[in-house]
Amino acid sequence: MTAFASRPAPKARPASSTGSRQSLRSRAAGLWQSITALGRAMALAALLCALAFVPTGWRELLAGALLGAGMLLFGLLTSLGNLSCNAETSLNQGHLEVGGQAELVLVLTNPGSRSTRRGRIGLALGQGTVIAPLPALAPGQSHQIRLKLEARSRGVIDLGPVTMEAGDPLGLIRRRRILTGARKLYIHPRTVALPPLEAGLERDLEGDPGSGIVDDDLEFHALRPYVPGDDIKRVHWLSTARAGTLMVRQYEPTLRTRTELILDGQAASYRNADEFELAVEIYASLGCRCLLDGRRLQALAPEPDDPDAHGTTLPTEDPRSFLDACSAIRPRQDSYDKPDLAEAPERTSLTILVTGSLGDRQPSALMDGSAQSASPVMLLAADLGANPSLQTQPGLVNAVLGNRKDLPILLETQP
Length: 415
Known about the structure:
This protein is of the alpha/beta class. It is built from 8 helices and 20 strands. It has 4 domains: 31-78; 86-188, Immunoglobulins (Immunoglobulin-like); 208-255, no CATH class; 258-413, Rossmann fold (3-Layer(aba) Sandwich), CATH 3.40.50. The strands form 5 sheets. The chain has a 7-stranded mixed sheet with strand order 16-15-14-17-18-20-19, with helices on both faces.
């Protein structure tokens, strides 16, 4: 019977030893990442000089290796220091209009018990970075940095992260620490104040009640005393007999107004980028007016990378969320199937299409679809600098706008 000798169980390594090794590895990785491209080139040159000195024995190579190592050691020592800071950003406006300004306040605080060293604060702003000097901060001391932001063009800008950097005078070592994350800054298109839209206004027994009180509608609200000019047909004679004075009816406005707002996002429909911006401004102004009027709005705007032929439906919960989405609209370079106006939903009360001066806006191409649809169609063409013009046909309004300020005049003059 063979006896098997039992092997001793392997000894477990102390947890402190494993933790210390991981800590050393992380520190080494952090040190390597803090060496700039110039510093790595210097380290490589020093290593090559040291390797070449072994077979040749040239003192010049040894001097080069020692010089490179000394410069790296000098850079490492001069870059040491406390970088522990807390950063808080406050922006007086998270949503800007093109041409607007905002003030960004960055507050840096030293929460530790040791003073921080001098360094630089980097704030990523879109594709660029804003650099500001940061003095040494005593424990508990704070420092404010104020920046003026100007919205020059429409878009969605990444604001942040905020970083703190410190290095040596030679540029060999650059320590960097991320203090805050990024946030979004929405730059809205310019809009113009518009009068309430009357086109496509329908009243329905099952419609949504609107705000305010009107003198003639379907949903009864209350009675009020008669004033000169009131229609005598609205006098409520039974209440008049009780009150001893003429009483007339008032109504709540019941509306069935579902508006479909479409932006032609094809780049070939516009002469240049400025004309496309004009179309976006018209589109955004009309969308805000529809939302302020309490209309049910479906807003379509193709995105550059959206494979959907009919584009993306923008959020329409409120004007701000709609304008936030308008900030990210970009023209598409490829062709796509434009929406057929004849296929508008049955409950649509008004269809508005905004295009450019090179877009397809021939009335003959749209009349058949408009005639079959119960809802009117407004075709607005942005032609930068052109004189405004208006053509109306049954079920169709065809207009050319050279400036966003022409839009209120169009809405006031249309039949």
